[in-house]
Write a structure and sequence with these properties.
The protein is of the alpha+beta class. The chain folds into four domains: 180 residues, Nucleotidyltransferase, domain 5, CATH 3.30.420; 81 residues, GIY-YIG endonuclease, CATH 3.40.1440.10; 96 residues, no CATH class; 77 residues, no CATH class. It is 37% helix and 21% strand. Strand 9 and strand 10 form a beta hairpin.
């Protein structure tokens, strides 16, 4: 037995909105055998645009029963039935949520007439209920009302059962099918072709814009996890409605997937990604020439479009580095903004310090240049060689002078011993501190994967 359901609501997600009307048609597989319809007092104001769409006003529901008052009757109609609706996850999420608030646990198999229509009646210009009814000459005398839409959906369902020559309804109901949990507009074929490998996946909307980017150790398993559960929040409901297509890029390793995800989020700026979209500027070591001609070093917050000579994760890390350079190269703590008071300079050459004009700019600047040169060459240059996507290839990530250069795939037989030859096989990508720190941490944890380059080879 099928329960064909339509509801009208005060908004688009269940946990913050109420039901204003519900219509149920019980269908025995051939025809409707019982009908139920009632207005419901949602306990809140009905927004004006919904009043205009449905014709249901606050006055109409003022004397209607609350959902809790009709919950038992609705539960008895729906239990042990297959829950059918046009965009079933929307109606089911509302009904299940409000039944649970009334103390009833609904757990039904579901069928979506949007998904079934796309399979059984392919090639139509639109699969909205109104346009399907117009195209198929299905009458709907009470559009955007629960009873009228439930009746029209029941007639559509009868037609789908007659036209289902390939058994799509039966396949959708099989326990392992899980088709009923998929977004209404997402073809199941998109899920079927996903690989069980590490990589990055993309959710596209109706205009093929990327609205979400994710990474996974197992692409298929991770994508399917998005569609499990019964989260009734606004963002999830909108997210599910907007997914029309899935694409993906396979990666050789989990690390490659993590890096590529960060790159793609910053390139595409997808609507539903929140993490990794914020600034990751951290702190940096900067150099500039003051009015007297002295080169100054300073640690400051990184700003957009700024290029520090060294990036650091915190002010403490930057100051520690700067104090080491002061001691090692005889720099002035005042000119490096480490000593900010007006007391006598505490530097290693306080008696002849540049801050008092006892050292010529050219002489002091040469020491700063030596410090920066040493710092640059102390930064690691190495490749991370790891598993590839195929048995005869390896993945490779290149860090050059402490900065992420790029990544790609090389032959299993490729000798990683020349920087320029390696770069020809890799794709350069924009880097940031998040990627750099992630790769450095991985290299520290797995030193056997590192291929080091000494400065002479790195510049050859």
């Amino acid at each position: 037995m099928y329960a064909i359901v339509d509801i009208e609501t005060t908004g688009g997600h269940a946990n913050a909105n109420g039901i204003t009307e519900i219509g149920i048609c019980l269908h025995d597989g051939k025809e409707v055998v019982k009908r139920y319809q009632t207005l419901v007092n949602p306990g809140r104001d009905i927004p004006v645009y919904i009043r205009a769409l449905t014709g249901i006003s606050n006055e109409m529901v003022a004397t209607a029963p609350t959902f809790k008052q009709v919950a038992q009757e609705i539960y008895e109609l729906l239990q042990d039935k297959i829950f059918v609706a046009h965009n079933v996850n929307f109606d089911y999420s509302f009904v299940r949520h409000h039944l649970s608030l009334a103390g009833f646990n609904l757990n039904s198999n579901k069928l979506c007439t949007v998904r079934l229509s796309r399979k059984i009646l392919p090639g139509l210009p639109s699969y909205s209920l109104g346009k399907l009814c117009n195209h198929l000459d299905i009458p709907n005398y009470d559009r955007h009302r629960a009873g009228g839409d439930a009746e029209a959906t029941a007639m559509l369902f009868s037609l789908l059962m007659q036209e289902d020559k390939e058994g799509h309804i039966e396949k959708a109901l099989k326990q392992r099918s899980r088709e009923q949990v998929l977004p209404a507009n997402l073809p199941k074929s998109n899920i079927e072709r996903l690989p069980y490998t590490p990589g990055v996946y993309y959710f596209h909307d109706a205009h093929d814009r990327v609205i979400y980017v994710g990474k996974a150790v197992n692409i298929k398993k991770r994508v399917c996890s998005h569609f499990t559960g019964n989260n009734t929040g606004y963002q999830r409901q909108e997210f599910m409605r907007n997914i029309h297509r899935i694409s993906f890029q396979e990666c050789g390793t989990e690390l490659m997937a993590f890096v590529l995800e960060n790159i793609e989020i910053k390139r595409l700026w997808p609507q539903y990604n929140r993490s990794q979209k914020g600034p990751e500027f951290g702190y940096g070591l900067y150099t500039f020439e003051d009015q007297r001609g002295y080169m100054r070093l300073a640690v400051d917050k990184r700003r957009k479009h700024s290029t520090p000579v060294y990036s650091c994760g915190s002010m403490f890390e930057g100051r520690t580095l700067l104090m080491r350079l002061i001691d090692q190269f005889g720099l002035c703590p005042k000119l490096c903004f480490i000593q900010k008071n007006s007391h006598v300079c505490t530097g290693p050459n306080a008696a002849l310090c540049a801050c008092e004009g006892h050292e010529e700019p050219n002489d002091y600047n040469a020491k700063v240049a030596n410090a920066l040169h040493e710092l640059k060459h102390a930064l690691p240059t190495f490749a991370l060689r790891d598993e590839g996507r195929l048995p005869d290839e390896h993945s490779c990530i290149l860090i050059e002078e402490g900065k992420f250069y790029g990544m790609g795939y090389i032959s299993h037989y490729f000798e990683v011993n020349n920087m320029e030859q390696l770069k020809a096989h890799l794709k350069p990508y924009p880097g940031n501190d998040y990627i750099r720190n992630m790769v450095l941490a991985h290299a520290e944890k797995h030193p056997h994967k590192k291929v080091m380059f000494v400065p002479e080879l790195a510049t050859a």
